[in-house]
Amino acid sequence: MPASGNSIPPLPPPTAPFEGRLRQEPGKTGKPEDRSPKLPLFRKHSLPVLALTLCLGTANAPAAGPAKHGHSHHGSAAKPTLDNGKKWAIDEPLRKAMGNIRDIIAASLGGIHEGKLSDSEYGELAGKINGEVEYMAGNCKLDPKADAQLHLILADMLEGIGAMQGKLKKVKRRDGAVKVVGALEKYATYFDDSGWKPLTH
């Protein structure tokens, strides 16, 4: 008997699931290819860490220690060494940035030693020093061996910046500033900056 005008036509035979048809390339068998978006494999780093990465060639830099939250993982047990008994040569951007950091610390050295700086003042101090580290990141160009030695010194400086910003809960902000002072003293010991003015404690 012929179908009435209101009858529903029969459904087509079942086919592969819609998701499988989207992910499986024509002419290939096996499991459907996963074409779901892939997340990037890198992690976001804080600005000082990124600056260090940009400034110093990672192929020549010493390996960092075990990763932990904050900047403490950038401290290194390795100590800087001289260039066959001589200080390492520097370039003008490095001289300028380190000199500015020295002056920033010198202006607050009394308050640091006497423990009179507030948390906000330490944070402001860290921001200024970090600005100079950023400048080094974009401009310093050293010999690879000198770069590796600078990496050790900047690792201490970045740890100090993190502490002054309150990111290292077990390290006092004042101790972070002292860490930066120590990094400056190491710089003067191992790098040939003829115009360097030592900090007076």
Describe the model.
It is a single chain. With 201 residues, the chain is an all-alpha fold. The protein has a domain at 45-51 and 87-201. The protein has six helices and no strands. It has helices spanning 18-23, 47-55, 92-114, 119-139, 144-164, 173-190. Helix 3 (92-114) runs antiparallel to helix 4 (119-139). The radius of gyration is 29 Å and the shape is globular. The model is unreliable at 16-28 and 36-75 (pLDDT under 50).
Quick gist of this model?
This protein is mainly alpha-helical.
Salient structural properties:
single chain, mainly alpha
Low-confidence stretches: 16-28, 36-75
Number of helices: 6
How widely separated are the two ends? 108 Å
Describe the global form. Answer: globular
Topology order in helix (H) and strand (E) letters: HHHHHH
Q: What's the alpha carbon Rg, rounded to whole Å?
A: 29 Å
Mean pLDDT equals 76
The largest β sheet comes out as: none
Strand content: under 5%
Classify the helix fraction into a percent range: 40-55%
Number of strands: 0
Q: Structural class of the helices, strands and pairings? A: mainly alpha
Question: Any chance you could write out the topology, listing elements then pairs?
Answer:
Blueprint: H1 18-23, H2 47-55, H3 92-114, H4 119-139, H5 144-164, H6 173-190
Helix pairs in contact: 2-4, 3-4, 3-6, 4-5, 5-6
